[in-house]
Design a protein that fits this description.
The complex is a heterodimer of chains A (291) and B (245). By secondary structure, chain A is mainly α. Chain A has a single domain, classed as ABC transporter involved in vitamin B12 uptake, BtuC. Chain A contains eleven helices and two strands, in the order H-H-H-H-E-E-H-H-H-H-H-H-H. In chain B, the strands form two sheets. In chain B, strands 6-7-8-3-9-10 form a six-stranded mixed beta sheet, sandwiched between helices. A four-stranded antiparallel beta sheet of chain B has the order 2-1-4-5, covered by helices on one side. Classes of the chains: A mainly alpha (291), B alpha/beta (245).
Chain lengths: 291, 245
């Protein structure tokens, strides 16, 4: 039993980080119906910035969040205004976002590979190998910091969506785009801001990735598959679903790794994905799919 | 000068044929209009064009002689024209209070928002009782009240209602009609498409009959109601059965 609790603690810490990674992906789909296959490559790009800021300038990866979020927000707004605004009226908008973000992912991966090669990187701040005990249970310091930061950022996002005027506009657009327009929401502006926030969260996720997970350019395909699995599990476009899906899968994959073996961890994600698609295709917190 | 003018508008969806075919309509301030006509006549399409949800292919829409037919829906709303569509008008995962708050999205003065919300709660006490409940969990009639209440949060000059009584129990529909009458007495210009054409015309000052994308007849609502030709062509079923147009 103690083992299971210990593994579950690892899983929850991991799930908290996954929730941050997935939040931007689900926000982009919820507000703009963008299936953003380039989300993970943005995370990897941010991880490179945080990695070199640590290696060259000694800036702690956790502090990198402070500049990566605004930087990636602007980048996201720029990407939205440059690419997505042009296909807004297309009857095949969702399909086109898949192709567009696929192209963006390939292009960014190529640039990263050309600039940084395919060598694995990982920042190694002092707390990476530290740990502390809560009762009988071991808590890795680096993962704990990452989970706490994720919690803070996700709470901030929740508060922003809940209590600010722009947040109201974003939520309204997520729930009913045309009705949002009719109450005065400029959905184009709200969409650009949402894509910026989505990218800002990719930036913050990259800061955490830089020291938690070894990375190289091609790695983003593994990440996007995993993130899509947990976003589908939670319900595409549902922030609450992304958080719950991430925590559930974080714990589930940790238990699978502990009980069966490390190679089987990712399988937990896809098994859960197939399972949920069979019994509840709209995901845990998603809306019913239109016929 | 007319408050709102629709001039020779052609409009349709995607690559489909024109639904509105050179439609013209003039709306005067403070009057209420009921638009009737068979299915496919272009009634809802006309409201979508005025609201900015659909761009006309030709012609123009002008408010106080200023064309605005290229404006976005939020800009149309800011100009004082509010549209309540016939379905899916409510934000299902927002509470009643949040639905009303976002109705005043363009209003920045919190005290004004609070005052208007109190007025809506007086108008629809059931919404005050359900203030914390999600919009999507209300009954159809309550959702329609919420949609109407939300429209009042912006204090519109022109209120456009698409089938406000659609799918409602007669008692609830009467409550909605009573509210519309209250709004008329406040001087709000109302343009309404109503499936219960007789009831809609009884409420309105002016009747407009649309057919095949153009205005076939228009005139004082009483005259339209009493015109035997129109009764036979467009109100027949309604007069006989009391529902549908």
């Amino acid at each position: 039993m103690t083992d299971i609790i210990q593994v579950s603690i690892f899983g929850l810490l991991l799930g908290g980080v996954y929730a941050l990674f997935a939040s931007g992906l689900t926000l982009a789909f919820g507000v703009m119906r963008i299936v953003n296959l380039s989300h993970a490559v943005f995370i990897v790009a941010a991880a490179y910035v945080a990695y070199f800021a640590f290696e060259e300038l000694g800036i702690d990866p956790l502090l990198s969040v402070l500049y990566l979020m605004p930087l990636f927000f602007l980048l996201g707004v720029g990407v939205y205004m440059t690419f997505f605004i042009r296909i807004e009226g297309s009857p095949r908008y969702v399909e086109m976002t898949v192709l567009l973000t696929f192209g963006l992912a390939i292009m960014t991966e190529g640039l990263l590979g050309w600039r940084f090669t395919g060598i694995f990187r990982q920042a190694k701040p002092s707390y990476l190998t530290d740990a502390f005990f809560i009762g009988d249970f071991l808590v890795p310091t680096g993962q704990f910091y990452a989970a706490v930061l994720s919690l803070v950022l996700l709470s901030g996002l929740w508060g922003f969506l809940r209590f600010t005027r722009t947040g109201y506009g974003i939520r309204a657009t997520m729930q009913n785009r045309s009705a949002a327009q009719l109450v005065g929401v400029n959905v184009r502006r709200v969409s650009a801001i949402s894509y910026g926030i989505s990218a800002a969260f990719a930036g913050a996720s990259g800061a955490l990735m830089s020291y938690l997970f070894p990375f190289f350019p091609f790695r983003h395909w593994q990440w996007i598959a995993l993130l899509l699995a947990l976003v589908v599990l939670g319900g595409m476009g549902s922030l609450k679903g992304a958080v719950v899906g991430a925590l559930v899968l974080g714990v589930a994959s940790s238990l699978v790794v502990d009980q069966i073996g490390p190679g089987w961890g990712p399988m937990a994600f896809y098994a859960a994905l197939f399972g949920i698609l069979l019994v509840r295709p709209q995901g845990l917190f998603g809306k019913e799919l239109a016929a | 000068m007319a408050l709102l003018e629709v001039r020779n508008v052609n409009a349709g969806y995607g690559k489909g044929p024109d639904i509105l075919k050179g439609l013209s309509l003039s709306v005067e301030a403070g009057k209420s209009y009921c638009i009737i006509g068979p299915n496919g006549a272009g009634k809802s399409t006309l409201l979508k064009v005025i609201s900015g949800l659909l761009q006309p292919r030709a012609g123009e829409v002008a408010l106080r002689d200023t064309p605005f037919h290229r404006a976005r829906p939020d800009q149309v709303l800011a100009a004082g024209i509010c549209f309540v569509p016939q379905d899916q008008a409510v934000f299902p995962e927002m509470s009643v209070r949040e639905n009303l708050t976002i109705g005043a999205y363009l209003e920045k003065d919190r005290s004004v928002i609070k005052e208007r919300m109190e007025r809506v709660f007086e108008q629809f006490p059931i919404l005050a009782e359900r203030a914390s409940q999600d919009g999507g969990k209300l009954s159809g009639g309550q959702q329609q009240m919420l949609a109407l209440g939300r429209a009042l949060m912006i204090d519109p000059e022109i209120l456009m209602l698409d089938e406000p009584s659609l799918g409602l129990a007669p008692q609830i529909a009467e409550q909605i009609f009573a509210t519309i009458r209250d709004l008329e007495s406040l001087g709000i210009t109302i343009i309404m498409v109503e499936q219960n054409a007789v009831r809609g015309l009884e409420l309105a000052d002016w009747g407009v009959v649309l057919d095949l994308g153009i205005v076939r007849f228009e005139g004082p609502a009483e005259t339209i109601l009493d015109d035997p030709r129109i009764r036979e062509l467009y109100l027949g079923k309604t007069v006989d059965s009391g529902s549908g147009s």
